[in-house]
Amino acid sequence: MAQTVTFYEDIQPIIFKNCTSCHRPSQIAPMPFLSFDDITAYGSMIKYVVNTNYMPPWMPEPNQVHLRNERRLSKKEINLINAWVDSGMEPGNAAKSLSTPDYDDQPKMKKPDAVFSMQDSFEQYGVYYDQYKVFVIPTDLEEDKKISAIEFVPGNSTIVRSCFVSIDRTDRSDPLDEWDPTSGYFSFGEVGFTPMESRWFTWNPLQGVKDYEDGAVKVLPKGAKLLFHIHYGPTSKPLKDRSELRIRFSKEPDSKIIQNIPLIHKYNLTNLPFEIESKEVKRFHSKFIVPYDLSLHSIMPHSNLLGNTWEVFTVDPKSKKSKVLLRIEDWDFKWKEQYAFSEPMLLKKGTVVHALAQYDNSEKNLSNPSDPPRKMTWGKRMFEELFLVYFEVSPIEESSKIQALFNPSMVTNGKFSFDFENKTPQKLTMEIIDFKGVKKGSIFQNKQFHVGPQKIDVNSKDLPFGNYYIEISNENQEVLTRHCFLNVEQDFFE
Question: Tens digits of per-residue pLDDT, 85-104?
Fold first, then answer.
């Protein structure tokens, strides 16, 4: 006879391990799962959401590439939940009850080098719907800072569902901020314009301090503005939030800069135009060639409410073997996040990166914002769609003779400045090259540079939209540094 599945022996360990970090008081989940009574009250619902993979919230399918912090129940755990609910939710021996997990909700970074906070509190309306707000936080930094660790601290954990932090040094956020009479400004899919680096840092409620290791750093540039793009979950009563970002500076003299850049986008689609007709289910494909050896730290696909599947995979240039990096069979905009690999992956020069995404513009898509469905085109608004994959990358090799500083990952107005630190007197050549290896322009040839910081004006207005990189070499044709950037239309994210 099969052994009876009981709460204290079998189910409580599963719930405490996978659910209570969010399902407890003062956290984002709508109900607590701490006691036998808490959990039995929702037993049938728990069975449903774990069998449909809606909970725990983790969209990627299992594959040969391991992702960090995976939130997935095993088949054995799901079967135990099914058996427990179906057999009447027996309590079992209460003497075997586990102690309630001791959660420390205080900031983990106790002595940050800098703290950047929302200037005013924001009040989420108590009308039970989601809101998406952008908050502009000046840093007033007088010099570029290398970052070794970042912690986002929500001011109100019951409503802050996610946050994307972008970087900009222009005044383009000011009119948007002034237009909205409340704290911050409303924006759905992106920040309302194309920042210098979109999604410089991302956060979700299960994320603690983000440490950058193995000599890799983020760079926060002087004069930067932090754009907190916060998704507020629904609430039945008005609640206030004032979130902050805690930062630790790096003490490493030489480091590799990590940048986050959407290398998959509408400019490298293979089946243009990016349009989804009313009642149509359509699949799009995009690809690019890796221009030089890169270390890949994470990827993040992004579509809005019509998207329902994603697949990102690579094809080796020599063996022609493919490797799936990420597969999502049930995309949900509300649970989007950045997926970090357990170890940085090597993307060799010549590797072809593919992305496939499907969009459902029919009545069957319950997330469709249009009723009846209407034609969808490119845009960041709720009634538009996006096809993006962000890649968090750093160079494999970089010379100690030069240090690239913070430089834009996205360029919109046809010109930008490129900053680097020259470590020794030398003659340098700087060129723009596309991802197919074709040289598109020479900024200077064999120009003498002294030791110290350098700012170079770059003109990209004659370049077709798409992926490029800056390459700096010396007179011995030794490549000293490279930096990817995406040349886009001014209204790419407007």
Answer: 999 999 999 999 999 998 88
Instruction: Enumerate residues 6+ apart whose C-beta is below 8 A from 273.
Output: none
Residue type, 466: G
> Does 412 map to a domain?
yes
Query: In terms of Cα–Cα distance, which of 240, 46, 220, 256 is closest to 116?
Result: 220
The DSSP bridge partners found for residue 284 are 357
Together in a domain, 408 and 451: yes
What tokens does 344 get? 């940085």
**Domain annotation covers residue 364:** yes
CA dist 228 and 225 (Å) reads 10
Backbone phi, psi, residue 101, to 5°: -55, 140
- Kindly state the tokens that stand for 47: 């069975």
User: If you ran DSSP here, which 8-state letter would residue 276 be given?
Assistant: B
Give the confidence band of 2 by pLDDT, cuts at 50, 70, 90: low
β-bridge pairing 244-249 and 114-117: antiparallel
Sign (positive or negative) of CA dihedral 53, 85, 101, 160: positive
State the residue for tokens 């699949």. 283
Indicate the pairing of strand 185-186 with strand 259-264: unpaired
Same domain, 410 and 387: no
